[in-house]
Structure of Glutathione S-transferase C-terminal domain-containing protein:
Amino acid sequence: MTPAQFVTESAPSGEWKRQGNRFTGRISRDSASAPGEGPDEHGRWPVEPGRYRLVVSLACPWAHRSLIVRKLLGLEDAISLAIVDPIRDEQGWRFTLDPDGRDPVLGISYLSEVYLATDPQYEGRVTVPAIVDTVTGQVVTNDYPQITLDLSTEWIDFHRPGAPDLIPAEREEMDQLIEEIYADVNNGVYRCGFATTQETYEAAYDALFARLDVLEQRLDDRDYLLGDSLSEVDVRLFTTLVRFDAVYHGHFKCNRNKLTEFPNLWAYARRLYQQPGFGETVDFDQIKRHYYLTHTTINPNGIVPKGPDPRSWTA
């Protein structure tokens, strides 16, 4: 069996099984807590502009979602932003992009410091995105699927004028798409890349491209996945698509097709990339350096490919 990149998340069968989210607090308009207080008895923190810090890696697709939604909704002044170095060391995500290697607001060198301050017994993988409370220094949430939904629904009083409504009133179709895209595409590329047996790799590979074929057909007669309007599910698909040819096609062996070989998906991805909030939050250098330099089991020599040419995204 091939050695696992993340041993605790690799099943005996060779299948990659992503760890759960340890911190699942919510910042909610329904919180009974006053400004400056901690969570109420239901784990709901008060909505309070200027209080919380969103920690992201520009390399990470899960974190990239929150960065895009924060930008689309105009929440830059309400929720501050911290960006970690794309290269993790043995202690995890580092603030080496900041002066003196410390986040200027939280005063920490590693994201793991606030994880352990919140739960001293935590032994899992430290992940981004994470929202940290600057008052208590605790992690509010690293629940990446819920973070972007809450930015849309709980921070509505601080949205910019004309901000898009990313969550339709009738959510059933969107939620079904989100579930399918997560299983087969967003997480599917990792299930390919981190598989440790041929059988589990091929199963994930087949599911990935079967779903991409369905999405390619779906986009034959529409601009967005739900029709004429941008929604949350488009953001979630985009962050995988924008990394596909640069990373997943080669590094994770997702090589039946390149994104550029799906006419509808490629046109759709470029259309999103050229909209405010999307392309301006993409950093191909950080994306490639993260994957090719931190997944040492997959790429032991640490060679970072020069291509593909990012100018194709603005054609």
Summary: The chain is about 35% helix and 5% strand. The mean pLDDT is 95. The domain at 172-314 is CATH 1.20.1050.10 (Glutathione S-transferase Yfyf (Class Pi); Chain A, domain 2). The first strand starts at residue 26 and ends at 28.
